[in-house]
Protein backbone atom coordinates (compact mmCIF):
# COMPACT_ATOMS: atom_id res chain seq x y z
CA UNK A 1 0.00 0.00 0.00
CA UNK A 2 1.42 3.39 -1.00
CA UNK A 3 -0.92 5.43 1.21
CA UNK A 4 -2.84 3.89 4.05
CA UNK A 5 -4.83 6.38 6.11
CA UNK A 6 -7.07 5.05 8.82
CA UNK A 7 -9.48 7.32 10.71
CA UNK A 8 -7.20 10.31 10.25
CA UNK A 9 -8.36 13.38 12.12
CA UNK A 10 -6.43 16.63 12.00
CA UNK A 11 -7.29 19.52 14.30
CA UNK A 12 -5.83 23.00 14.52
CA UNK A 13 -7.11 24.81 17.58
CA UNK A 14 -10.85 24.26 17.65
CA UNK A 15 -11.06 23.56 13.89
CA UNK A 16 -11.36 19.98 12.66
CA UNK A 17 -9.74 20.08 9.21
CA UNK A 18 -9.81 16.34 8.49
CA UNK A 19 -12.44 14.25 10.19
CA UNK A 20 -11.97 10.48 10.64
CA UNK A 21 -10.77 10.11 7.07
CA UNK A 22 -9.76 6.70 5.70
CA UNK A 23 -8.11 6.38 2.29
CA UNK A 24 -6.05 3.68 0.63
CA UNK A 25 -3.89 4.14 -2.45
CA UNK A 26 -2.22 1.12 -4.05
CA UNK A 27 0.68 0.68 -6.50
CA UNK A 28 -0.11 1.72 -10.06
CA UNK A 29 -3.06 3.94 -9.17
CA UNK A 30 -3.51 7.56 -10.28
CA UNK A 31 -5.85 9.50 -8.02
CA UNK A 32 -7.54 12.84 -8.36
CA UNK A 33 -8.71 14.59 -5.18
CA UNK A 34 -11.66 16.92 -5.73
CA UNK A 35 -13.61 19.10 -3.36
CA UNK A 36 -14.74 22.67 -2.73
CA UNK A 37 -12.55 25.38 -1.16
CA UNK A 38 -11.63 24.51 2.41
CA UNK A 39 -12.55 20.81 2.08
CA UNK A 40 -9.10 19.78 3.35
CA UNK A 41 -7.38 18.77 0.09
CA UNK A 42 -4.11 20.59 0.68
CA UNK A 43 -4.02 19.41 4.28
CA UNK A 44 -4.49 15.84 3.10
CA UNK A 45 -1.52 16.25 0.75
CA UNK A 46 0.54 17.57 3.66
CA UNK A 47 -0.06 14.28 5.45
CA UNK A 48 0.56 12.24 2.28
CA UNK A 49 3.88 14.07 1.84
CA UNK A 50 4.88 13.40 5.47
CA UNK A 51 4.86 17.14 6.26
CA UNK A 52 2.09 16.83 8.87
CA UNK A 53 0.99 14.20 11.35
CA UNK A 54 -2.61 13.35 12.12
CA UNK A 55 -3.93 14.49 15.50
CA UNK A 56 -5.47 11.02 15.79
CA UNK A 57 -5.75 7.94 13.61
CA UNK A 58 -2.88 6.39 11.67
CA UNK A 59 -1.20 7.37 8.42
CA UNK A 60 1.30 5.12 6.63
CA UNK A 61 3.16 6.51 3.62
CA UNK A 62 5.15 4.13 1.38
CA UNK A 63 4.83 1.45 4.02
CA UNK A 64 6.09 3.57 6.92
CA UNK A 65 3.81 4.77 9.66
CA UNK A 66 4.22 8.51 10.29
CA UNK A 67 5.62 9.07 13.74
CA UNK A 68 7.80 5.97 13.64
CA UNK A 69 9.92 6.72 10.59
CA UNK A 70 12.88 8.96 9.75
CA UNK A 71 11.25 11.71 7.66
CA UNK A 72 14.54 12.62 5.99
CA UNK A 73 14.67 9.15 4.48
CA UNK A 74 11.00 9.15 3.52
CA UNK A 75 10.70 12.60 1.93
CA UNK A 76 13.02 12.09 -1.07
CA UNK A 77 10.78 9.15 -2.03
CA UNK A 78 7.88 11.59 -2.44
CA UNK A 79 7.79 14.23 -5.20
CA UNK A 80 5.68 17.31 -4.52
CA UNK A 81 4.62 20.23 -6.72
CA UNK A 82 2.52 22.85 -4.96
CA UNK A 83 2.06 26.60 -4.83
CA UNK A 84 3.51 26.63 -1.30
CA UNK A 85 6.70 25.01 -2.55
CA UNK A 86 6.89 27.30 -5.60
CA UNK A 87 6.70 30.30 -3.26
CA UNK A 88 9.93 29.16 -1.64
CA UNK A 89 11.84 29.22 -4.95
CA UNK A 90 13.74 32.49 -5.45
CA UNK A 91 12.91 34.31 -8.71
CA UNK A 92 16.68 34.63 -9.30
CA UNK A 93 17.18 30.83 -9.22
CA UNK A 94 18.32 29.25 -12.49
CA UNK A 95 15.64 26.88 -13.82
CA UNK A 96 18.12 23.99 -14.04
CA UNK A 97 18.96 24.53 -10.36
CA UNK A 98 15.27 24.56 -9.44
CA UNK A 99 15.16 20.95 -10.65
CA UNK A 100 18.63 19.98 -9.49
CA UNK A 101 18.22 21.10 -5.87
CA UNK A 102 15.34 18.64 -5.41
CA UNK A 103 18.02 15.95 -5.17
CA UNK A 104 18.88 17.45 -1.79
CA UNK A 105 15.31 18.30 -0.80
CA UNK A 106 16.23 21.99 -0.91
CA UNK A 107 15.12 25.11 -2.70
CA UNK A 108 17.99 27.43 -3.54
CA UNK A 109 21.48 26.42 -4.53
CA UNK A 110 24.08 26.51 -1.79
CA UNK A 111 27.36 24.59 -1.77
CA UNK A 112 26.12 21.11 -2.64
CA UNK A 113 27.96 19.32 -5.42
CA UNK A 114 26.09 17.54 -8.14
CA UNK A 115 27.21 14.69 -10.33
CA UNK A 116 27.14 14.92 -14.12
CA UNK A 117 24.35 12.34 -13.97
CA UNK A 118 22.20 14.69 -11.87
CA UNK A 119 22.65 17.45 -14.46
CA UNK A 120 21.75 15.05 -17.22
CA UNK A 121 18.61 13.89 -15.42
CA UNK A 122 17.48 17.45 -14.64
CA UNK A 123 17.86 18.43 -18.30
CA UNK A 124 16.01 15.34 -19.52
CA UNK A 125 13.13 16.05 -17.15
CA UNK A 126 12.89 19.68 -18.29
CA UNK A 127 12.86 18.38 -21.88
CA UNK A 128 10.11 15.88 -21.12
CA UNK A 129 7.93 18.74 -19.87
CA UNK A 130 8.77 20.93 -22.87
CA UNK A 131 10.87 23.50 -21.03
CA UNK A 132 14.36 22.14 -21.78
CA UNK A 133 15.16 25.32 -23.71
CA UNK A 134 14.59 27.40 -20.57
CA UNK A 135 17.12 25.59 -18.34
CA UNK A 136 19.47 28.61 -18.15
CA UNK A 137 16.73 31.20 -17.55
CA UNK A 138 15.81 32.35 -14.04
CA UNK A 139 12.62 31.00 -12.46
CA UNK A 140 11.19 34.52 -12.07
CA UNK A 141 11.22 35.11 -15.84
CA UNK A 142 9.06 32.05 -16.65
CA UNK A 143 5.37 32.23 -17.45
CA UNK A 144 2.97 30.54 -15.05
CA UNK A 145 2.66 27.51 -17.35
CA UNK A 146 6.42 27.20 -17.74
CA UNK A 147 6.83 27.40 -13.97
CA UNK A 148 4.32 24.61 -13.44
CA UNK A 149 6.21 22.38 -15.83
CA UNK A 150 9.54 23.15 -14.19
CA UNK A 151 8.00 22.31 -10.81
CA UNK A 152 6.77 18.93 -11.99
CA UNK A 153 10.21 18.21 -13.46
CA UNK A 154 11.63 19.12 -10.04
CA UNK A 155 9.14 16.85 -8.28
CA UNK A 156 10.33 13.92 -10.43
CA UNK A 157 14.05 14.60 -9.92
CA UNK A 158 14.51 12.13 -7.06
CA UNK A 159 12.71 9.39 -9.04
CA UNK A 160 9.99 9.30 -6.37
CA UNK A 161 7.63 6.42 -5.68
CA UNK A 162 4.79 8.85 -5.01
CA UNK A 163 4.08 12.08 -6.93
CA UNK A 164 1.78 14.67 -5.34
CA UNK A 165 0.51 17.54 -7.49
CA UNK A 166 -1.51 20.31 -5.85
CA UNK A 167 -3.55 22.15 -8.50
CA UNK A 168 -0.96 21.84 -11.26
CA UNK A 169 -3.24 23.50 -13.84
CA UNK A 170 -4.30 26.49 -11.71
CA UNK A 171 -3.59 29.80 -13.43
CA UNK A 172 -2.90 28.28 -16.85
CA UNK A 173 -4.61 29.46 -20.02
CA UNK A 174 -6.54 26.92 -22.08
CA UNK A 175 -3.56 25.99 -24.29
CA UNK A 176 -1.27 25.76 -21.30
CA UNK A 177 -3.73 23.58 -19.42
CA UNK A 178 -4.22 21.20 -22.33
CA UNK A 179 -0.47 20.89 -22.91
CA UNK A 180 0.17 20.20 -19.26
CA UNK A 181 -2.64 17.63 -19.16
CA UNK A 182 -1.09 15.96 -22.22
CA UNK A 183 2.24 15.64 -20.41
CA UNK A 184 0.50 14.34 -17.26
CA UNK A 185 -1.45 11.82 -19.35
CA UNK A 186 1.79 10.43 -20.76
CA UNK A 187 3.16 10.19 -17.25
CA UNK A 188 -0.03 8.58 -15.94
CA UNK A 189 -0.05 5.95 -18.69
CA UNK A 190 3.59 4.99 -18.23
CA UNK A 191 3.73 1.95 -15.91
CA UNK A 192 7.20 3.06 -14.71
CA UNK A 193 5.75 6.30 -13.33
CA UNK A 194 5.22 6.78 -9.62
CA UNK A 195 1.80 6.56 -8.03
CA UNK A 196 0.17 9.94 -8.68
CA UNK A 197 -2.21 12.04 -6.58
CA UNK A 198 -3.48 15.26 -8.15
CA UNK A 199 -5.58 17.85 -6.34
CA UNK A 200 -7.90 20.03 -8.37
CA UNK A 201 -11.17 21.97 -8.17
CA UNK A 202 -12.24 21.07 -11.69
CA UNK A 203 -13.12 17.77 -13.34
CA UNK A 204 -11.93 19.35 -16.62
CA UNK A 205 -8.41 19.22 -15.17
CA UNK A 206 -8.33 15.45 -14.68
CA UNK A 207 -5.75 14.08 -17.13
CA UNK A 208 -6.69 11.05 -19.21
CA UNK A 209 -5.02 7.99 -17.72
CA UNK A 210 -6.15 8.76 -14.17
CA UNK A 211 -7.86 5.84 -12.52
CA UNK A 212 -9.41 6.85 -9.18
CA UNK A 213 -11.09 9.80 -7.47
CA UNK A 214 -11.51 10.93 -3.89
CA UNK A 215 -14.24 13.48 -3.19
CA UNK A 216 -13.76 15.54 -0.03
CA UNK A 217 -16.29 17.72 1.70
CA UNK A 218 -15.79 19.33 5.09
CA UNK A 219 -12.75 17.19 5.85
CA UNK A 220 -14.65 13.96 5.23
CA UNK A 221 -14.63 11.47 2.38
CA UNK A 222 -17.78 12.01 0.31
CA UNK A 223 -16.84 9.22 -2.13
CA UNK A 224 -13.75 7.29 -3.16
CA UNK A 225 -13.02 4.68 -5.81
CA UNK A 226 -12.61 4.14 -9.57
CA UNK A 227 -13.25 7.36 -11.54
CA UNK A 228 -16.37 6.23 -13.36
CA UNK A 229 -18.02 5.12 -10.11
CA UNK A 230 -17.19 8.31 -8.25
CA UNK A 231 -17.67 11.06 -10.84
CA UNK A 232 -21.43 10.79 -11.01
CA UNK A 233 -23.70 13.86 -11.13
CA UNK A 234 -25.24 12.78 -7.84
CA UNK A 235 -21.96 12.46 -5.94
CA UNK A 236 -20.32 15.57 -7.39
CA UNK A 237 -23.51 17.58 -6.70
CA UNK A 238 -23.47 16.46 -3.08
CA UNK A 239 -19.76 17.24 -2.75
CA UNK A 240 -19.94 20.75 -4.22
CA UNK A 241 -23.39 21.54 -2.84
CA UNK A 242 -25.08 22.39 -6.13
CA UNK A 243 -27.03 20.58 -8.79
CA UNK A 244 -24.47 19.52 -11.39
CA UNK A 245 -24.57 17.87 -14.76
CA UNK A 246 -21.51 15.72 -15.44
CA UNK A 247 -20.42 14.61 -18.89
CA UNK A 248 -17.75 12.11 -19.78
CA UNK A 249 -15.87 12.57 -23.07
CA UNK A 250 -13.78 9.44 -23.48
CA UNK A 251 -11.24 9.78 -20.69
CA UNK A 252 -11.96 13.46 -20.00
CA UNK A 253 -14.75 15.01 -17.95
CA UNK A 254 -16.74 18.21 -17.69
CA UNK A 255 -19.29 19.52 -15.22
CA UNK A 256 -21.68 22.48 -15.05
CA UNK A 257 -24.66 23.61 -13.03
CA UNK A 258 -27.96 22.17 -14.26
CA UNK A 259 -30.11 24.92 -15.68
N1 LIG B 1 -3.34 26.07 10.71
C1 LIG B 1 -4.65 26.15 10.56
N2 LIG B 1 -5.44 26.58 11.57
C2 LIG B 1 -6.78 26.66 11.44
N3 LIG B 1 -7.44 26.30 10.31
C3 LIG B 1 -6.71 25.88 9.28
C4 LIG B 1 -5.29 25.77 9.33
N4 LIG B 1 -4.85 25.30 8.14
C5 LIG B 1 -5.94 25.12 7.39
N5 LIG B 1 -7.06 25.48 8.05
C6 LIG B 1 -8.46 25.42 7.56
O1 LIG B 1 -8.72 24.09 7.18
C7 LIG B 1 -9.59 24.04 6.07
C8 LIG B 1 -9.00 23.16 5.00
O2 LIG B 1 -7.89 23.80 4.41
P1 LIG B 1 -7.15 23.21 3.11
O3 LIG B 1 -6.16 24.24 2.67
O4 LIG B 1 -6.67 21.86 3.41
O5 LIG B 1 -8.38 23.12 2.12
P2 LIG B 1 -8.40 22.93 0.55
O6 LIG B 1 -9.45 21.91 0.27
O7 LIG B 1 -7.04 22.68 0.02
O8 LIG B 1 -8.91 24.35 0.10
P3 LIG B 1 -8.70 25.20 -1.25
O9 LIG B 1 -9.48 24.48 -2.30
O10 LIG B 1 -9.31 26.52 -0.92
O11 LIG B 1 -7.23 25.27 -1.52
C9 LIG B 1 -9.83 25.49 5.68
O12 LIG B 1 -11.06 25.90 6.18
C10 LIG B 1 -8.68 26.23 6.32
O13 LIG B 1 -9.05 27.56 6.65
Tell me, rounded to a whole number, the average pLDDT: 93
Structurally, how many domains make up the residues?
1
SS summary, helix count:
9
- CATH architecture identity: 3-Layer(aba) Sandwich
Radius of gyration (CA) equals: 18 Å
What topology, given as strand order, has the largest sheet?
A: 6-7-8-3-9-10
Shape designation: globular
Given this structure, which CATH class is correct? Alpha Beta
Strand content: 25-35%
Structural class: alpha/beta
Helix fraction, binned, reads 25-40%
The count of β-strands is 12
| CATH fold field value | Rossmann fold
What's the SSE pattern? EEEHEEHEHHHHEHEEEHHEE
Explain the overall architecture:
It is built from nine helices and twelve strands. It is an alpha/beta fold and 259 residues long. It has one domain (3-257): Rossmann fold, CATH 3.40.50. A six-stranded mixed beta sheet has the order 6-7-8-3-9-10, with helices on both faces. It has a four-stranded antiparallel beta sheet with strand order 2-1-4-5, with helices on one face. It has a two-stranded antiparallel sheet with strand order 11-12. A hairpin with a 2-residue loop joins strand 11 (244-249) and strand 12 (252-257). The chain binds adenosine-5'-triphosphate. Residues 12-13, 15, 17, 35, 37-43 line the site of adenosine-5'-triphosphate. It comes from Actinotalea fermentans. Residues 3-243 form the ABC transporter domain. Keywords: ATP-binding, Nucleotide-binding.
Can you describe this structure in just a few lines?
The chain is α/β, with parallel strands linked by helices. The protein has helices at residues 41-48, 71-74, 83-87, 95-100, 116-128, 144-156, 174-189, 227-230, 233-240, and strands spanning 3-12, 15-25, 30-34, 56-61, 64-65, 78-81, 162-166, 195-200, 212-217, 220-226, 244-249, 252-257.
Amino acid sequence: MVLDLQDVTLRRGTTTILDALSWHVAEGERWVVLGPNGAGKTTLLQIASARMHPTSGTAAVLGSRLGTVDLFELRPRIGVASAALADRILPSERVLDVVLTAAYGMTGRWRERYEALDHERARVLLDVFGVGGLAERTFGTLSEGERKRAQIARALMTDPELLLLDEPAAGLDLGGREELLGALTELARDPRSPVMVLVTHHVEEIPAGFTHALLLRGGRVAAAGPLAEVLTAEQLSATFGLDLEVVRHGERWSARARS
